[in-house]
Amino acid sequence: MKPILKWAGGKSRLMPRLRPFLPAADCLVEPFVGGASVFLDTDYPRYVLADINPDLINFYQTVVDSPESVIQAALPLFKHANTSVDYFRYRTDFAQWRATRGLNRAAVFLYLNRHGYNGLCRYNLRGEFNVSYGRYKKPYFPAAEIRLFAEKARDTHTRFVCLPFEETLAFHVDERCAVYADPPYLDCFTGYYIAPFQDEEHQALTDALTETHLRWDVPVVLSGSNTPKTHAAYRGFTFHYTHTHCSSAAKGASRGKAGEVIATLPVRQSRPSTSEADGFLMDEWLEFV
Ligand SMILES: C[S@@+](CC[C@H](N)C(=O)[O-])C[C@H]1O[C@@H](n2cnc3c(N)ncnc32)[C@H](O)[C@@H]1O
């Protein structure tokens, strides 16, 4: 299943490498859901999908509540509003009415996502969406993806929550869960929502993930860029090595192929584990630090 939204840092391409490390559990908790590619490409009985971005969570919740209404509201924008003048007009309205939620905001969010530059989702310090116009000839309208997303979310009783990661981990994890964390990368593109995600946030995330892991004895899987900083920030995790494409260049970092790591905190008690992951580990282990 393909994501509805274009999302910088989306994990679709990493899934074949990531899947073997995602442990069996009754519920997968994702504190950084973004484009939801992990939700769409896994098979857990239940999910908690969280993100700090209220527009994103409003969008998903509206899609699940009424997929056909989202399609009807967004389709005319895709048909009749693909010029820079239209784009900036909708972007200005979206910024001006940033406290609103519901169907119209969800439809415009989808329009801005597919017509804006490169799947970026960026806000200024006032909380106004400020991605530039993408100049795409005919942006794809993801009607099929909207319907499939809604169906899967309903079948799995998925809960959508708009919270910072600390609160998702504190209030939405129990012993039946596994956690997959995909935070904005260190040394890569970091500005998804209003506040950037920097060294202190990565340190806070390490603490929160470790605490959650120890409290519930749940497995934790994290993805990050393969840099010494990531290894230092998440020391205590076991690192596995892979590659992906980092499509959003950071200040000073070049666009292109970037190393990617998958880091894990496995459970202490015996649980079903993926033998696939064991094989992968043997082949791909990298002593980085
Ligand atoms: C790398 S993206 C996740 C990509 C996702 N796994 C996918 O496959 O599309 C990181 C996400 O973290 C969210 N985010 C940033 N800071 C956050 C915070 N403090 N708490 C929760 N979510 C946050 C951003 O809004 C963004 O959607």
Structure overview:
The chain folds into two domains: 12-52 and 163-284, Vaccinia Virus protein VP39 (Rossmann fold); 61-144, Adenine-specific Methyltransferase, domain 2 (Orthogonal Bundle). A seven-stranded mixed beta sheet has the order 3-2-1-4-5-7-6, with helices on both faces. Residues 248-255 and 272-289 have low confidence and may be disordered. The protein has helices spanning 15-18, 37-40, 54-65, 67-80, 84-96, 103-115, 143-155, 165-171, 199-216, 228-233, 275-284, and strands spanning 27-30, 46-51, 159-162, 177-181, 220-225, 238-246, 256-265. By secondary structure, the protein is α/β, with parallel strands linked by helices. It is built from eleven helices and seven strands. The protein is 39% helix and 15% strand. It starts with 14 loop residues before the first helix and ends in a 5-residue tail after the last helix. S-adenosylmethionine binds next to α2. S-adenosylmethionine binds at residues 7, 9-11, 31-32, 34-35, 37-38, 51-53, 164-165, 182-184, 192-193, 197.
Structure described in brief:
The protein is of the alpha/beta class and 289 residues long.
CATH superfamily heading of the largest domain: Vaccinia Virus protein VP39
Distance between the termini: 37 Å
* CATH class category of the largest domain: Alpha Beta
Helical segment count: 11
Biggest sheet overview: 7 strands, mixed
Report the CATH topology name of the largest domain: Rossmann fold
Helical content band: 25-40%
Spatially, the strands of the biggest sheet line up as 3-2-1-4-5-7-6
Task: Determine the strand fraction and express it as a percent band.
Answer: 15-25%
Elements, N to C (H/E) = HEHEHHHHHEHEHEHEEH
Count of discrete domains = 2
Low-confidence spans: 248-255, 272-289
Radius of gyration, taken over Cα atoms and rounded to an integer in Å:
19 Å
Let me know the average pLDDT. 88
- What are the distinct ligands in this entry? S-adenosylmethionine
Just name the CATH architecture of the largest domain: 3-Layer(aba) Sandwich
Q: Globular, elongated, flat, extended or rod-shaped: what is the shape? A: globular
Number of strands: 7
The class by helix and strand makeup works out as: alpha/beta
